[in-house]
Amino acid sequence: MKKSLLKVRVMDFITSTAILPLLFGCVGIFSLFKLLQHMRMKAYLRNAVVIITGATSGLGRECARVFFAAGAKLVLCGRNREALEELARELAASRVTEVQTHKPYIVTFDLADPGAIVAATAEILQCFGYVDVLINNAGISYRGAIIDTTTDVDKRVMETNYFGPVALTKAILPSMIKRRHGHIVAISSIQGKISIPFRSAYAASKHATQAFFDCLRAEMEQYEIEVTVISPGYIHTNLSLNAITADGSKYGVMDKTTAQGRRPMDVARDVLAIVGKKKKDVILADLLPSLAIYLRTLAPGLFFSLMASRARKEQKSKNS
Ligand SMILES: NC(=O)C1=CN([C@@H]2O[C@H](COP(=O)(O)OP(=O)(O)OC[C@H]3O[C@@H](n4cnc5c(N)ncnc54)[C@H](OP(=O)(O)O)[C@@H]3O)[C@@H](O)[C@H]2O)C=CC1
Ligand SMILES: CCCCCCCCCCCCCCCC(=O)OCC(=O)COP(=O)(O)O
């Protein structure tokens, strides 16, 4: 049959049957579903009390911008009060017309200090009475060979990336359980799913994060508390500059991979949508890291060989 004749026959079929109205109906229902989802997401975050840790820089700072614009009552956390105050001033000066915005509240504490976490939680609960969303975003990275790394460094990374967020989450949880409402978010990493050489402490802390919050999700379902783990790939932030090395000194280098990473503002917008949609576990990365995760699961032997070869190459370039 000629191509043009086939086209005419197909068009005839479409117009003479109920396919066209059905097609329009499906598109209409889909658009309506999307609109309702968007409205529900906006209502979920409007006036919600949202704690963001690590709001002084990078992803946390951009999350603060997008959650502020969504009408959340923000609690900005970090160690540097001046940086948080500057951000709060900037947010207050920004013009958001769509929703009513709220002056952010600032709390400074070090995630490596359990006493400070308890005091900060008490302050937040006294001020707001409750917390709707806790975003465990603060974190520190690390570069070094296991053989050279002091246990103090391993502990420092675990304290900031794992024990701190766990302690903060545990401090907030009872108030959420009482209300049978709340949402805990953990910003993990692709390195919470796969481990790459010379990142042992960081990858271990992110794997532990994934495991803890997966357990939490299961335990909290009965209280209607949501748990979301987000695993981003590289983001263009100060993470590598602030990373610590095997002896605990600052790495202080903007790695090429980090510099070429996604814009923190774009990742923050994704975080907002993921939280608004109450997703449970999301990988926010390009194809290669996503494939690497599948490879680790489906062909671990091959994945381990690739990582060993990567380690050899990195070691060689360090020695030369
Ligand atoms: N950048 C990337 O490529 C990726 C980042 N991530 C994750 O994203 C999250 C945010 O990192 P990013 O924005 O990139 O990095 P930044 O270094 O820009 O920000 C890290 C934030 O964590 C805070 N922080 C660090 N240590 C402590 C501590 N002991 N107590 C309290 N706060 C602390 C810092 O605050 P301050 O020092 O001012 O107190 C800062 O606000 C981290 O969990 C990171 O692992 C995940 C995947 C990729
Ligand atoms: C079927 C073919 C699969 C090919 C897979 C090849 C394996 C390639 C390995 C890719 C490794 C990607 C690592 C991504 C790491 C990442 O995104 O980490 C995010 C961070 O947390 C960055 O922190 P850092 O301090 O390490 O900069």
UniProtKB/TrEMBL annotation:
One of its GO terms (cellular component) is cytoplasm. GO terms for molecular function: oxidoreductase activity, acting on the CH-OH group of donors, NAD or NADP as acceptor. Keywords: Membrane, NAD, NADP, Oxidoreductase, Transmembrane, Transmembrane helix. The keyword Transmembrane helix applies. It comes from the Eukaryota. The chain crosses the membrane at residues 13-36. Belongs to the short-chain dehydrogenases/reductases (SDR) family. Putative oxidoreductase. NCBIfam families: PRK06181.1 (NF004825). This is Dehydrogenase/reductase SDR family member 7B. It comes from Pteropus vampyrus (Large flying fox). The lineage of its organism: Eukaryota, Metazoa, Chordata, Craniata, Vertebrata. The gene is DHRS7B.
